[in-house]
């Protein structure tokens, strides 16, 4: 069994829901983000096109972060999830540098202020300290919501199928761009998607064998992966156009041509 | 859009899309790593040079004090600086066997273990060297024991000198470091620094170590200059990100560190001083030697700073740009 995730970029509407769900699920400190949404701008001189990519820990099979960890705080579980034992981590940040995907974050004091820095902790923060304590001076990253998976499996549920056993980001994704399942099972939803839609991993050449796959028209190459225009919500397009609008010079040049 | 929103979008947009410099080991508290690495090079370099001079009886006192200084560089400066950098320094013991088996894969864990073994063997060797240097016990047994611990401490000293190079070269995420040349550069530059520093120790003890140290420095500085050129040329053709690191080091914001610190003060000035004394047949004046030693030490600080500062991550999206 090896848990994996498929991210269909053609379906992703860049709503940041996965990031919010993760923050709530793990009571993340104010300046800590486990999954990220990064934007790639391609500019051919006439038009600016923006593609966004949800990224998170790739839970690599050959994880450099596990190999470099001097205290064995980073370890690999039998189900393929790379986890961190915060009680063992001494905060050398070697894993942060060694991760080729830069998906580990060191929790410094600066990253851990109150949600409202001038005020006392909110009830949410106080509860979070009890339920999911984060240790300042250690490294953190996405763990595929392993607590949910473990609790779900104990109840006989199936991760990726039953919501209670599925990572929070996958549950919240309103466009169903995220799919979770067993990569070792050829009939699982993730294996089928990877096969049918030309799923690919980031930086395959590193030999890290990531467990997070992407489906994308531009990078994946299969025309069937192209996002239909209606997949983009109106508000989202409006928002992006306000942020990434071409410059006046480029517009003038385009009109002149 | 207010400034805060714009900044947040900017960060999202820039993050790992374009090549991004590592900051963990060079900015803020990361400066401690830089200093620790410098003391690692200076300490091990000086100790290794000291055991070379300890082989000759007439340099026994210089070798003893140089060894002491090298040992202190590691024990009093390098290790505590590394420890202060850690987020949870009091968990330092977790890297040691038998609490951890991480030394099998982690260069960081290996380095910590090697450093501790080096310090133990080094301390024993220095006690024996002290007995010989000050004629407290000069029997053949003490000499033999000194040789044995010289070899043992020397081996672990070399490992202590090279492990940080290996730790950095292991990182595929930073192509500029991801080369086998890095540990060699660090080791040889450290030995050259040690040769410079032992001249200073020789001036204090009054033993005539300078001619020997100068002739070795002359060769080593030329070798180091060639090695650095080879390292940069290799990185330049290795990948687009490594090429960017080279450009940043040679022509970018860190160029002054490279040209002034590494090239001029670290290599050219000490080399000119030693070459001039070679051709004139006379030893350089004390003032000039002290100046050359200071320049050499600044070069050691500059080398580590430059290499750490231009460590640039390869962008996360492989086909987005040509990195």
Précis, in short:
The complex is a heterodimer of chains A (257) and B (323). Chain A has helices at 17-26, 64-68, 94-98, 123-131, 146-154, 168-172, 189-196, 217-220, 234-243, 248-256, and strands at residues 3-8, 36-43, 48-55, 74-76, 82-84, 105-107, 138-140, 178-182, 212-215. Chain A has 257 residues and is α+β, with helices and mostly antiparallel strands.
Structure description:
The complex is a heterodimer of chains A (257) and B (323). Chain A has a single domain (3-256), classed as Alpha-Beta Plaits (2-Layer Sandwich), CATH 3.30.70.20. Chain A has helices at 17-26, 64-68, 94-98, 123-131, 146-154, 168-172, 189-196, 217-220, 234-243, 248-256; strands spanning 3-8, 36-43, 48-55, 74-76, 82-84, 105-107, 138-140, 178-182, 212-215. In chain A, the strands form 4 sheets. Chain A has a 3-stranded mixed beta sheet. Chain A is 29% helix and 17% strand. The longest helix of chain A is centred in the first third of the chain and has 10 residues, at 17-26. With 257 residues, chain A is of the alpha+beta class. Chain A has 10 helices and 9 strands. By secondary structure, chain B is mostly helical. Chain B has a single domain (22-313), classed as Up-down Bundle (Formate dehydrogenase/DMSO reductase fold). Chain B has 10 helices and 2 strands; from the N terminus they run αβαααααααααβ. Chain B has helices at 3-14, 31-54, 60-85, 107-133, 140-169, 181-205, 210-238, 240-250, 255-280, 286-309; strands at 20-21, 312-313. In chain B, strands 1-2 form a two-stranded antiparallel sheet. Residues 1-11 of chain B have low confidence and may be disordered. The chains are: A alpha+beta (257), B mainly alpha (323).
Throw out a few tags for this protein.
heterodimer, A: 257 residues, alpha+beta, Alpha-Beta Plaits, three-stranded mixed β-sheet, two-stranded antiparallel sheet, 10 helices, 17% strand, B: 323 residues, mainly alpha, Formate dehydrogenase/DMSO reductase fold, 72% helix, 1% strand, globular, disordered N terminus
């Amino acid at each position: 069994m090896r848990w994996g995730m498929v991210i269909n970029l053609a379906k992703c509407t860049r709503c940041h829901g996965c990031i919010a769900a993760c923050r709530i699920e793990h009571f993340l400190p104010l300046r800590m983000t486990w999954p990220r949404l990064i934007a790639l701008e391609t500019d051919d001189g006439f038009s600016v096109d923006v593609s966004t990519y949800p990224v998170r820990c790739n839970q690599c099979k050959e994880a450099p972060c596990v190999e470099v960890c001097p205290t064995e705080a980073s370890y690999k579980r039998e189900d393929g999830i790379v986890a961190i034992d915060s009680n063992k981590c001494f905060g050398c940040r070697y894993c942060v540098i060694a991760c080729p995907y830069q998906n580990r974050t060191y929790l410094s004091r600066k990253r851990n202020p109150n949600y409202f820095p001038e005020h006392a902790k909110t009830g949410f923060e106080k509860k979070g300290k009890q339920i999911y304590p984060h240790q300042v001076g250690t490294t953190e990253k996405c763990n595929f919501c392993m607590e949910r998976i473990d609790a779900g499996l104990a109840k006989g549920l199936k991760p990726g199928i039953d919501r209670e056993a599925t990572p929070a980001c996958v549950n919240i994704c309103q466009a169903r761009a995220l799919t979770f399942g067993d990569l070792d099972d050829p009939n699982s939803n993730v294996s089928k998607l990877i096969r049918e839609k030309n799923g690919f991993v980031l930086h395959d050449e590193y030999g890290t064998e990531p467990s997070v796959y992407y489906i994308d028209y531009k990078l994946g190459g299969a025309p069937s992966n192209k996002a239909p225009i209606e997949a983009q919500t109106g508000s989202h397009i409006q928002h992006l156009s306000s942020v990434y609008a071409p410059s006046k010079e480029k517009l003038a040049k385009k009109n002149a041509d | 859009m207010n400034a805060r929103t714009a900044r947040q979008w900017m960060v999202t947009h820039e993050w790992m899309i374009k090549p991004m410099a590592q900051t963990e080991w060079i900015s803020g508290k990361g400066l401690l790593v830089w200093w620790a690495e410098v003391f690692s090079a200076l300490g091990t370099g000086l100790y290794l040079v000291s055991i070379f001079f300890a082989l000759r009886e007439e340099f026994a006192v210089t070798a003893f004090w140089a060894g002491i200084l090298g040992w202190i560089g590691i024990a009093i400066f390098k290790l505590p600086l590394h420890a202060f950098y850690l987020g949870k320094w009091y968990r330092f013991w977790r890297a040691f066997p038998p609490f951890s088996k991480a030394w099998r894969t982690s260069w960081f864990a290996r380095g910590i273990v090697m450093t501790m073994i080096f310090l133990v063997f080094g301390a024993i060797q220095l006690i024996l060297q002290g007995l010989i240097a000050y004629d407290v016990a000069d029997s053949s047994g003490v000499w033999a024991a000194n040789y044995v611990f010289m070899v043992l401490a020397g081996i672990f000293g070399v490992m202590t000198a090279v492990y940080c190079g290996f730790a950095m070269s292991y990182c595929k995420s930073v192509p500029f470091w991801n080369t086998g040349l890095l540990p060699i550069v660090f080791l040889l530059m450290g030995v050259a620094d040690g040769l410079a520093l032992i001249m200073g120790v020789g001036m204090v003890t009054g033993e005539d170590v300078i001619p020997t140290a100068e002739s070795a420095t002359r060769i080593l500085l030329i070798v180091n200059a060639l090695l650095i050129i080879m390292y940069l040329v290799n990185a330049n053709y290795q990948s687009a990100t490594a090429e960017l690191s080279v450009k940043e080091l040679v022509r970018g914001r860190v160029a002054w560190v490279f040209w002034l610190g590494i090239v001029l003060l670290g290599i050219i000035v000490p080399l000119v001083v030693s070459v001039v004394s070679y051709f004139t047949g006379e030893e350089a004046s004390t003032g000039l030697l002290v100046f050359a030693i200071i320049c050499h030490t600044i070069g050691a600080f500059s080398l580590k700073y430059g290499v750490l500062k231009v460590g640039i991550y390869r962008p996360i999206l492989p086909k987005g740009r040509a990195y």
